[in-house]
Amino acid sequence: MRLHLTEEDAAFREEMREFFTTQVPQHIRDTVAARRELSKEQMVESMQVLNAAGLAVPGWPVEWGGKDWTPLQRHIWHEELQLANVPQPLAFNAGMIGPVIAAFGSQEMKERFLPKTANLDIWWSQGFSEPDAGSDLASLRCAAVRDGEEYVVNGQKTWTTLGQYGDWIFTLVRTNPEAEKKQAGISMLLIDMTDPGVTVRPIELIDGSVEVNEVFFEDVRVPAENLVGEENKGWTYAKFLLGNERVGVAPVGATKRMLAQAKEHADLDDVLVASRIAELENELMALELTALRVVAHSADGKPHPASSVLKLKGSELQQEVTELIVDLAGPMSLASGAGDGSDVPDWARVATPGYLNFRKASIYGGSNEVQRQIIAGTILGL
Amino acid sequence: MDFTLDDEQEALRDAVRGLLGKAYDSSETRREVTKQDPGFGEDTWQRLAEMGVLGLPFAESDGGMGAGPVEVSIVAEEVGRVLAPEPFIETVVLAGGIVAAAGTDEQRADVLGRVAEGSLILAAALKEIGEPVTASQSGDGWTLSGSKEPVLHGERADAFVVSAKTDAGTGLFLVEGDASGLTRTGYRTHDGGRAAHVAFDGTSATPLGDVSADQAGVLETAVASAQVAYCHEAVGAMTVALNTTVEYLKTRKQFGVPLKTFQALTFRAADMYVSMELVRSVASWATLVLTDEPTRALEAASRAKLQVSTSGRHIGQEAIQLHGGIGMTAEYSVGHYTSRLTAIDHWLGGGADHLKRLASSVGDHEVVEPLPE
């Protein structure tokens, strides 16, 4: 057992810190620090800066731009990126479909999509949830019927985050409605969102943001070559993808940064406030250390089952910090719509929308109830 | 940054697990042992001495094994798994740790040598309910007056390490068990342990090291090591409390089905697992801090003790609740784990005390970085 980073890892951390704080444009990092919404252009620019330095998709296989890093180095990369207020590489590209294509796609599919995916030349959207298939994802109904060299897709997806920017959408579709187990009749298709018959409709959220969308498919004709892997194996790929997603959703560094900012606005002589912050800091540290223990035991890129712990606790702490900020803002937190001529500082204006928005964290990526089910079933054998 | 044990450390764990697992093969065996005075197994204590466990953290020149906090944490965790009542942390880590930190060469070699060979039960008398114990110089010697309580294993102790008020601040003293003017009144603690009221009335005492200086800092650091060791004992106890509860949910049937059929119960077990993972992480980290970044020892001990308080209450309370009535009985194991966790929580600073310490310093840093810069 050893606390210190090796010299090599310490140098690695220094290198990451240096890069993130000097090479990623300040206006982008300021936007993240101020908890303002990033524009599409900022997201793309940021990911391209990272990709040019080979730092956008370190988790991918080396031949497709990944890094042969240790799990600890990948953790350091992730933490330093968040601490420097650098936007995380678009999850749909870097964390979800990229690794799936790299693992299960044909050589042709890899060549066609992976470089553009790493560089955010293609903005991917996620077509998983449906109005009647949320936590029970495998009951999805969006149908793809083979017709010669094409699939004809009909149905609806929902909760498609940032679908308004999407170029392509990786979509779970039912290809065999007769399958004995519902999981066995699902395939994954890559669909061009400019294809005729694809409609994206925004859903306004409780914080006033338009972050998620409904996506409708009406007789959309998708070339059969856009099938990922094999037909009716989509559930396997989806589970692989969700496992990866879970590791990424313990945003320790970002929550630490948010809490540090909250402290700047807090009266630390108020013992109730100070003790609440001290408790949050301790729990966050416990989470960070647990993440370090989990990454150290993730073999073959397969997520450790304890990654459900990270998702569960990570989202809870993220939410508790957003809640703290609203409390610190007090009555000023009502001024979310204030413009010029208001004395309410920016941090207090965004406090409540941020709090409301982050209620999502315990719902997406497999709700926290699903995570408890995984912990009870897979880890505890209950 | 590495949380894994090396081969030697694993061998130590297996050996201690073997020894204590045999001595306490069931909760009932432990209950029998703790019913009789001195509340622990003198023979088990001797076997621990033969294995080298009682001299583990002491320097080889003091008769010890020269091992570090990691090895201590391994033993403490095994103690916690079976709730072994032997005063490993009390005598070796806490009282022994104070002697190791404050004592002269001769004192260390003498006292720690005897602790290591199992012939000296040393108790730390640090807590007062009322006025502080005061030390006064009389001629060449020193005497102590006042009383300490609770002193864990104070009735059985062969000698005491005592903190007392001096002109310089806090002084540390060694008091022999047969010193005149020493009165002890022992009693049982709720977790099967032993404690005592120990009164000093002009009792002669030997200063540990340089008593002309304020030894509060030395004491604090030694206490921090013991706090972290207790955290590992708690981790061991929580591990078993959780495992026992999970097994119970699998085997106990009600309404014709195993309890694990009910999501209201399995979800709570899942939350216990989360608490378990968090506390294990922080305790291991704190041990590494003692080894590799001792300037943060007090902070690390507070962080670990706070997490032990939170996780220990959660796991201890839920372990009983998920068992139902059987968890309330003295015949069944799980309630004893909760009792022990409650004792650890309130010893050497409770969760609230450590939270207070951490809260007073939240303004000193921007973020908490567990890894050294």
From TrEMBL, chain A:
Keyword terms: FAD, Flavoprotein, Oxidoreductase
Record keyword Zinc-finger present: no
Domain Acyl-CoA oxidase/dehydrogenase middle: 127-220
Pfam families named among the record's database cross-references: Acyl-CoA_dh_1, Acyl-CoA_dh_M, Acyl-CoA_dh_N
Name by which UniProt lists this protein: Acyl-CoA dehydrogenase
Cofactor(s) needed by this chain: FAD
Transmembrane segments: none
Family: Belongs to the acyl-CoA dehydrogenase family.
Annotated signal peptide: none
One GO CC term on file: plasma membrane
InterPro entries (UniProt xref): Acyl-CoA_Oxase/DH_mid-dom (IPR006091), Acyl-CoA_Oxase/DH_mid-dom_sf (IPR046373), AcylCo_DH-like_C (IPR036250), AcylCo_DH/oxidase_C (IPR009075), AcylCoA_DH/ox_N (IPR013786), AcylCoA_DH/ox_N_sf (IPR037069), AcylCoA_DH/oxidase_NM_dom_sf (IPR009100), Mycobact_Acyl-CoA_DH (IPR052161)
Keyword Zinc: no
Domain Acyl-CoA dehydrogenase/oxidase N-terminal, first and last residues per copy: 6-119
PANTHER family: ACYL-COA DEHYDROGENASE, ACYL-COA DEHYDROGENASE FADE29
Domain Acyl-CoA dehydrogenase/oxidase C-terminal: 232-378
Molecular function in Gene Ontology: flavin adenine dinucleotide binding; oxidoreductase activity, acting on the CH-CH group of donors
Automatic annotation (TrEMBL), chain B:
Molecular function GO terms recorded: acyl-CoA dehydrogenase activity; flavin adenine dinucleotide binding
Domain named Acyl-CoA dehydrogenase/oxidase C-terminal: residues: 226-345
Pfam families (alphabetical): Acyl-CoA_dh_1 (PF00441), Acyl-CoA_dh_N (PF02771)
Keyword Lipid biosynthesis: no
InterPro entries given in the database record: Acyl-CoA_Oxase/DH_mid-dom_sf, AcylCo_DH-like_C, AcylCo_DH/oxidase_C, AcylCoA_DH/ox_N, AcylCoA_DH/ox_N_sf, AcylCoA_DH/oxidase_NM_dom_sf
Keywords: FAD, Flavoprotein, Oxidoreductase
CDD domains: ACAD
Cofactor(s) recorded in Swiss-Prot or TrEMBL: FAD
Naturally occurring in which organism (per UniProt): Aeromicrobium terrae
Name of this chain's protein: Acyl-CoA dehydrogenase
Protein's UniProt keywords contain Oxidoreductase: yes
Record domain Acyl-CoA dehydrogenase/oxidase N-terminal: where: 7-118
Domain of life: Bacteria
Family, similarity comment: Belongs to the acyl-CoA dehydrogenase family.
